[in-house]
UniProtKB/TrEMBL annotation:
Gene3D superfamilies: SecY subunit domain (1.10.3370.10). It is a multi-pass membrane protein. One of its GO terms (cellular component) is plasma membrane. Its main location: membrane. This is Protein translocase subunit SecY. It comes from Chitinophaga caeni. The chain crosses the membrane at residues 21-42, 73-97, 117-137, 149-173, 180-197, 217-237, 271-293, 313-334, 370-391, 397-417. GO terms for biological process: intracellular protein transmembrane transport; protein targeting; protein transport by the Sec complex. It is found in: Cell membrane; Membrane.
Length: 448
């Protein structure tokens, strides 16, 4: 406890770090306040039926990323998701399109151009999603739209407000990244998810204590299990496989360059949360498609399987998809040939491995070996909310036993703590932990 208080004092004594933390908290507060401001032309007292509908299926996933703004029909209803979708699309283009590959290699100027393309694409994606959201509101709001407002006026104003809201949220995220602490986009998503945790805990506690003393014991067991899963996720996110790299000595004039040993830290979970998001999106497609079929009765069993995340068949298919997408996304973002070429240019080599293609094959083989157990553990994490719900845990609290919610929360918190620790170490203070350094999802390579 004394160490913790001393660390807090050290953090608060650093003026730059103090300003960054306060700026982050202020910008997050602005975002949370905006998520409760209802769109013009909407009666907030008549949104109960819409809230229930928008918390199901893929809309529930969207609502989670928007911090509940989607179900509240707020000005931030689309949240940061259009920006994330645009960023993923541009990221894929940098892999497949030579023009974007060239921009990526141009340094700061290329990065600025890519950011401009991302912002333009965000506006287009947001406008399309805003139009779809208006249609969904008219269909599912149950009279929440004020008739006197006018249909055409409501569509125009809502599209403009939602697009402006998303761009403002994107601006908040960029300001948190520049002036605050941590990755702004990730923090905005994480705070939206974290805001649901106290209510979910309270609901679970109330339901368990209603059964008497035995219910309280079960609640404590659930909390202990939740902590164990969180620790497992921390190990998954921080887990790395280090490959030793030696750099040959070069003597230029009277100076010696190279001659050092370093390592390449390969992440056990290089794909992050993306495989779970992709798998969830795929699992929602069959039920959504068949719901529009004319012969719904014959497909009722099929719909039941893909609509019930506690169903064993659903969880088996879901787990397989997570494993497949883990390898797929890792292959997209991880290029061993590029790493081997960079090492060769800098006179680096892996002991016992020839430079060039042999090095690329070796790094790829190591990555495949460590990705396999990471993919299986990620699949277990993905199906844990369904298992928790099947064990009679409240559905809101069950979502925090794994899946997207817990993985994002743990990953973002680790990234933020890593940045705080880096600021402390730069100013010759002790880190946040005496037993080791915190490693986030994007830890740089360290010297050995």
């Amino acid at each position: 406890m004394k160490k913790f208080i001393e660390t807090i004092k050290n953090i608060w004594s650093i003026e730059d770090l103090r300003k960054r933390i306060l700026t982050t908290l202020l910008l997050v507060l602005i975002y949370r306040i905006g998520s409760y401001i209802v769109l013009p032309g909407i009666d907030p007292t008549a949104l109960n039926s819409f809230s229930k509908t928008s918390n199901q299926g893929i809309l529930g996933l969207f609502n989670m990323f928007a911090g509940g703004s989607f179900s509240r029909a707020s000005i931030f209803a689309l949240g940061i998701m259009p920006y994330i979708s645009a960023s993923i699309a541009i990221q894929l283009l940098t892999i497949a399109v030579p023009k974007f590959q060239k921009l990526q290699k141009e340094g700061e100027s290329g990065r600025q151009k890519i950011n401009q393309y991302t912002r333009v694409l965000t506006v287009i994606v947001t406008a399309l999603q805003a139009s779809a959201y208006v249609a969904f509101l008219k269909q599912q709001s149950g009279g929440a739209i004020i008739e006197e407002y006018g249909a055409s006026m409501f569509w125009l104003s809502t599209t403009i407000v939602l697009t402006a809201g998303t761009m403002f949220v994107m601006w908040l995220g960029e300001k948190i990244t520049d002036k605050g602490i941590g990755n702004g986009t990730s923090i905005i998503i994480m705070m939206g998810i974290l805001a649901r945790l106290p209510e979910a805990l309270l609901q679970e506690f109330s339901s368990k204590t209603a059964d008497g003393g035995s219910g309280l014991v079960f609640f404590l067991v659930e909390i202990a299990f939740f902590i164990v899963i969180t620790i497992g996720l921390i190990l998954l996110i921080q887990g790395t496989r280090k490959i030793n790299v030696n750099y040959a000595k070069r003597i230029v004039g009277n100076k010696q360059y190279g001659g050092v040993r370093q390592f390449i830290p390969l992440k056990v979970n290089a794909a992050g949360v993306m495989p779970i998001i992709f798998a969830q999106a795929i699992m929602f497609i069959p039920a959504t498609t068949i719901s529009f079929a004319t012969n719904a009765e014959s497909a009722s069993g099929f719909i039941r399987v893909f609509s019930d995340h506690t169903n064993p068949i659903y969880n088996v298919i879901y787990g397989i998809l997570v494993i497949v997408f883990t390898f797929f996304y890792t292959a997209l973002i991880f290029n061993p040939s590029t790493m081997a070429d960079e090492m060769k240019k800098n006179n680096g080599f892996i002991p016992g491995v020839k430079p060039g293609q042999a090095t690329a094959d070796y790094i790829g083989a190591v990555m495949d070996r460590i990705t396999l157990p990471g993919a299986f553990f990620l699949a277990v994490v993905g199906i844990m909310p369904g298992i928790a719900a099947a064990l009679n845990i409240n559905s809101n609290f069950a979502t925090f036993f794994g899946g997207t919610s817990l993985l994002i929360m743990v990953g973002v918190i680790l990234d933020t703590l890593q940045q705080i620790e880096s600021q402390l170490l730069m100013r010759h203070y002790d880190g946040l932990m005496s037993s080791g350094r915190i490693k986030g999802r994007t830890s740089p390579a360290s010297a050995q």
